[in-house]
Design brief:
By secondary structure, this protein is an alpha+beta fold. The protein contains 24 helices and 17 strands. The strands form 3 sheets. It has a 6-stranded antiparallel β-sheet, with helices on one face. Strands 4-5-6-7-11-12 form a 6-stranded antiparallel β-sheet, covered by helices on one side. Strands 15-14-13-16-17 form a 5-stranded parallel β-sheet, sandwiched between helices.
């Protein structure tokens, strides 16, 4: 697990000093070792920050070259099936000098070219300099666990695990993308292929990019796509018989967990006591005795303290259990976090995730998490709510539902109970999926950012081009939409930045390729959720493998009681001072203060206020140009 940074300039040499300074801005991602290479004949530089997990020797150093120097790689992530691939390559007369998955990945490209990514099971973002073809090949894992930003500007290629090094090297890229800005304030995160900056992009999950060094052109390839396969499998009823689904799910989960337990450093499990992490603990215990588990307590916040639920699972599976105490939560942490979230997002749970990672890092470098379980198997509360609204929508004409929503948006204040429900009811349930997050609509953005909007015509972000929209089954469309948007652009970003800021690697067994494809092509939506129930199939498995005293229907998201905090003097004054001290060109301070002072709706508006305060501090740190 590491950080990568690379540059290919069209006409000038790469400044070694500036490149090294820029690379150091992501030192937190790989504090164990730094590697840099320069090809002055082609104006190319590759940089790597290493967090040593497998083969801790210098043989795992990067950038790594093939013996004939035809190929060079920098790699962030883990390939869980690298030993099987290595065996295949050895049969083809490849030899290896290390025990790393990096060397396997590099030789895989030498043998199979860009198609090698189809063989990998894991989380990854990497770049390969192909001196034979005069190309730089970039690729990112299927779920989007590992980040990869890039910019192709004036013939120059920049790419990195985070944005800071790119901005530091090429300061002219520090321009806000107005469409991404609007999308951010509607959803709480930027689009799958955009960053907040106009000419800096995300390489989408499940995609590769080939950059031609000679003509400076590039092509993007989608090497993994599920929607058409989902429709085909479910239309042909090729999913597994219900009686076979539980044992099939058990097998997929067992293999996914087993493959991710390989490391040359101590490994543990982030055990919240919820369904997903409890299942991972149960399966991990089949392969390792006294597996390490840990939960973090937040003193003074009993409703968010899950230590008792975690202890039940730890005792049942006889784990080596740690209860870690997070440091006190104070509002100044928001300013600290803006450094790591250089492509901003507005998820307040980044705070406990960061504190959890900080506490874990004192004992471990690798941890398994339950990320992905809700998206694969229908765990979110809004799934059942949408199922009920969809059923009700059949009784109410679409135009009437839209009219009712327009009225509620104009009359009811932000945070008014029922306002979001009316908005969701107005959805087109046939071939789309609504925004279930609650931030700022287009109209509300014009109010809160009136000065910004007065000077620019902000295009509405593209909301129709979504892979999930071609999925005919609504339940599968809902879960796949969240898998390709909320999971990849919010949750996985949150856990990547929080964990890497503290020098630890987090793995997600639920995001194993085979398990993901099983969940979407073999499991019908009726066994994911309905109007009353969620995670139907996963709970059937839990009945088989978890203790009978486990609370099956408990749903506690990993978060902080932000609404409660904002009723306290310290947090309320901090938010108020941040808003009042802000540049009036950034936000409408009067309406923002009114939102904070509306204590009757503070719980509904807490996330919006967090977004505003985070945005203000982010702007102070990065000073972008509008």
């Amino acid at each position: 697990m590491c950080g990568i940074f690379g540059i290919s300039l069209a006409n000038t040499l790469v400044s070694k000093k500036l490149f090294a300074e820029s690379l150091d801005l992501i030192n937190h991602r790989g504090p164990d070792m730094t590697g840099i290479s320069h090809d002055e004949s082609e104006n190319i530089a590759f940089g790597h920050k290493r967090l040593s997990i497998i083969d801790l020797s210098d043989l795992g150093s990067q950038p790594m070259n093939t013996p004939n120097s035809s190929y060079q790689i920098i790699f962030n992530g883990e390939i869980y099936n690298f030993k099987e691939i290595r065996n295949d390559l050895e049969k083809l007369n490849y030899s290896f000098i290390s025990q790393t998955d990096t060397e396997v990945l590099l030789n895989s490209y030498a043998e199979w070219g860009p198609d090698c990514v189809k063989r990998f099971k894991g989380m990854f973002a990497f770049a390969i300099y192909d001196q034979k073809q005069k190309t730089i090949f970039l690729s990112r894992d299927r779920a989007g666990e590992k980040p990869l930003y890039y910019s192709i500007h004036n013939g120059n290629l920049f790419f990195c695990s985070e944005i800071k090094p790119i901005l530091n090297f090429e300061k002219n890229l520090n321009i806000i993308d107005s469409e991404a800005f609007s999308y951010l304030f509607e959803h709480g995160f930027t689009q799958r292929d955009k960053s907040i900056f106009k000419n800096i992009y995300k390489l989408k999950a499940g995609h590769s990019l080939t950059f031609n060094i000679q003509d400076r052109g590039h092509e993007i390839h989608n090497y993994w796509s599920l929607p058409n396969k989902i429709n085909e499998c479910h239309a042909n009823k090729s999913h597994v018989n219900e009686s076979d689904l539980v044992p099939a799910l058990e097998n997929y989960m067992e293999q996914a967990v087993k493959s991710q337990l390989d490391a040359d450093v101590p490994i543990g499990i982030m055990l919240s006591g919820g369904l997903d992490s409890s299942l991972i603990t149960a399966f991990a215990s089949r392969f390792k005795e006294k597996i390490n588990t840990f939960t973090v307590s937040f003193s003074g916040h009993g409703a968010f303290d899950e230590t008792s639920h975690a202890k039940l699972i730890a005792d049942a599976f006889q784990t080596n259990h740690y209860e870690l105490e997070a440091r006190a939560i104070n509002p100044q942490i928001i300013e600290e976090l803006t450094y790591y979230y250089d492509d901003p997002m507005f998820d307040p749970s980044m705070i406990p995730t960061y504190l959890l990672s900080e506490a874990i890092s004192k004992n471990f470098k690798v941890a398994l998490s339950g990320d992905g379980g809700d998206e694969l198997f229908g765990g979110y509360n809004h799934y059942s709510k949408l199922a009920r609204l969809k059923k009700f929508s059949n009784l109410v004409p679409y135009f009437f539902r839209q009219s009712l929503n327009n009225l509620s948006q104009n009359v009811l204040p932000l945070g008014f109970r029922g306002r979001k429900t009316v908005e969701l009811l107005s959805s087109n349930f046939i071939d789309s999926y609504p925004n279930t997050n609650e931030f700022f609509s287009d109209k509300e953005q014009e109010i809160f950012f009136s000065n910004f909007f007065a000077n620019k015509a902000i295009p509405s972000p593209e909301r129709t081009h979504d892979q999930s929209n071609i999925i005919s089954d609504y339940g599968l469309r809902a879960t796949f939409h969240d898998f390709t948007n909320y999971l990849s652009e919010d949750l996985l970003v949150k856990i990547d930045r929080a964990s890497m800021a503290n020098g630890i690697e987090v793995r997600a067994p639920f995001l194993d390729k085979d398990l993901v494809e099983f969940a979407f092509t073999k499991v019908p939506s009726s066994l994911k959720f309905d109007c009353k129930n969620r995670k139907i199939l996963l709970k059937k498995l839990a009945l088989k493998v978890l203790p009978s005293s486990f609370e099956m229907h408990r749903k506690q998201g990993f978060s902080i009681p932000l609404g409660n905090f904002l009723l306290e003097k310290e947090w309320s004054e901090y938010f108020a001072q941040t808003i009042l001290d802000s540049d009036p060109l950034l936000i409408n301070r009067k309406d923002s203060m009114a939102l904070l002072e509306d204590k009757a709706r503070i719980f509904q508006n807490a996330g919006r206020l967090f977004g505003l305060v985070f945005y203000i501090h982010w702007m102070k740190r990065f000073k972008p140009i509008f």
